[in-house]
Amino acid sequence: MRFIDECEIRVEAGDGGNGCVAFRRERYVPFGGPAGGDGGRGGDVVFVADSGLGTLQDLTHQRVLRAEAGAHGEGKDCYGRSGRDLVVRVPVGTIVYDRDTREKLCELVEPKARAVVARGGKGGRGNKHFATPVDRAPRKAEPGEPGETRELYLELKVMADVGLLGFPNVGKSTFVSAVSRARPKIADYPFTTLEPHLGVVTLGDPRRGDSRSFVIADIPGLIPGASAGHGLGTRFLRHLERTRVLVHLVTLVEEPGRSPLADYRVIRSELAAFSEELAALPELVALTKADLPHVRAAYPELKTEFEAHGLRLHLVSAVTHEGLDALLTAIADCLASTEKRGEDQETPKSSN
Hints:
alpha/beta, Spo0b-associated Gtp-binding Protein, Chain: A, 2 domains, six-stranded mixed β-sheet
């Protein structure tokens, strides 16, 4: 299944049913009076967040989503049946905008969250509502109101605790496959990953009750100018906006002007250009491919360079699993500290 993180779609709520003009027709009741029922309400178009979905691909094949119209009112005071709501499943993390005004209508960030994106029309009243002492046999009724129609733009941002950053081919996909059950495509050439992949990392033993888990996102590799859209960078960077911790992966490459510290600075500048809030997130830095002799030999000097900038450089290998446990523990501790800071900020201070 292709990963689709944006699409446009038209939604049409159901029209309300018309009210009815009718009169009682009973034996020995020559002036039975009005008995027209009301029309039914039109159905809504409702989006529901489904944790089992990870892409908007299903919606790209449906240009129009239309809810059921309400039934018309009938005689003998029979009201029309309300139209059924159209419930549409979308991935968790979906943001819904009005396509024309770009106004944000809703953001579905919790499983089973619901949002009405188009409301059905109200049913029209039957003629019995228009009876007066002067006009006891009204011959008028209301038409049903039309349902809302909207052109929507949907955008998906993946829901993950940790976001992996780095240049193409630094080992992000291999790292994710080594620490979780995710199996992204891996090959020895740049831009192997063309879509985000999520992996669940579990530390400790769940049976003993001391386990910790978090979701890690493998974001496609970034290049200089990503914040301006180069290499589809803006589409990739937005998937990091819901993460709480960033992990920068760097490694040694034989290219002019490239070094682990230089690569880290480029990624940092792209983050700051794209979003100041994103650049302010807690971060860790790891040197990958420790199983290669030249990387291991360069680590002590690189560690000193990063320490001079106030950064601790972890050494890891996704092939031999060296250093992975220590890095994952550091990530879990960093996530725990961010949760604690968030709780402290939400707790109101007591007045003396």
